[in-house]
Amino acid sequence: MRVLFASEMGSAAENFHLMKIVAAELRARMPQCEIILATSLKAKDVDISWADKGYSTPKFTFRHDAEGDGVIQQLHYLGWTTDELRKIQFNNWRTLLEELEPEQVICCNAPGAVIVATMLGCPCLTLATEPNVDESRSLELFPELNAWAHDMVGMGVVELTNRPGIAFLSSMSDTPRSSMMLNASPFEYVAKSTAIGPPLLIGRLNDDWKAIQQHLQACGLTPERIGTSELFSDDTLARLACAKPSFVLGAYDFASTSLALSLGVPYLGMPQTELERRQAAQLEASKRSYRITSDPVMVDILLGSMPGFQRDAAARHEADQGGFCSIETALDMVI
């Protein structure tokens, strides 16, 4: 069986990690399957040894003044606002798919590949994180694309992108969507850890986070700090598999919140963007996370409540497994 993994936007570290764990499950089921990777993302400092062959697809860096965030802005940056550039990208995917003739296409944050694969009749599965989980909502902002799709195959963008898939985020922080997707953990292996280590601070340090870090150190807690991309490195995952953090601090991004929910530990967050604020509202409403500020009094209150937060997080995780199913179960349902 020949399987093509496609990726064209988002975080390279996150995308390659998600594709890697799905590829590992496919290898376990079908040791002789041929796995091919096609991506426009830079594969620097990431593991792509899981693929038998790799293709670098063209990427147009086209800046546009359109407003928006998340998927919308990424599509503008890719040149989707320009009809000619979008058609070039679609033709590139068509040429590659017709040449390789894969029996299964797995698209990780690759809306162009999803559309072309569906048009060509290739079985298509999507992998996504929260900002990209329902691409059709953003693709509808390109009405000329919808008209073109209708002219080509008599289907609109929503129908073309309504593919089954796996969402790598907890159902606790999920948003409504049209396609059938199962929620799976990107940290399934790490979640088996039982030992407890120091707190984990994920992301860039601004002045507020520096103040929080200093206050934690004054209280006898020295958090381990890593960048978001480092979270998906083999070294970091191996350390976390030996001892999970006592709690996680971050900006309510996909990676840090998913880790806390996977491990059943408290999450203290400070959102910066609109996407992160929406994520914060969902998790805080269900008592899955707590807002933190650089105010020392607030930090002390949260630390004083931490034993209760930890008991609640562990109890919820035992009851619902963090809102995730296993990769194995997810693939059983969608392939």
Please describe the topology of this protein.
Layout: E1 2-7, H1 12-29, E2 34-39, E3 53-56, H2 70-77, H3 83-100, E4 104-108, H4 111-119, E5 124-128, H5 135-139, H6 143-153, H7 157-161, E6 165-167, E7 181-183, E8 196-197, E9 200-202, H8 207-218, E10 224-226, H9 234-242, E11 244-245, E12 248-250, H10 254-263, E13 267-269, H11 274-285, E14 290-291, H12 296-320, H13 327-334
Parallel strand pairs: 1-2, 1-4, 2-3, 4-5, 5-6, 6-7, 8-11, 9-10, 9-12, 12-13, 13-14
Helix pairs in contact: 3-4
In short:
With 335 residues, the protein is α/β, with parallel strands linked by helices.
Describe the structure.
By secondary structure, this protein is an alpha/beta fold. The protein folds into two domains: 2-163, Rossmann fold (3-Layer(aba) Sandwich), CATH 3.40.50; 190-321, Rossmann fold, CATH 3.40.50. Helix content is 45%, strand content 15%. The protein is built from 13 helices and 14 strands. A seven-stranded parallel β-sheet has the order 3-2-1-4-5-6-7, sandwiched between helices. The chain has a five-stranded parallel β-sheet with strand order 10-9-12-13-14, with helices on one face. A two-stranded parallel sheet has the order 8-11. Helix 4 links the parallel strand 4 and strand 5 (124-128). Helix 3 packs across helix 4 (111-119). The longest helix is centred in the C-terminal third of the chain and has 25 residues, at 296-320. It is globular, with a radius of gyration of 21 Å. The chain starts with a strand and ends with a helix. The relative contact order is 0.12.
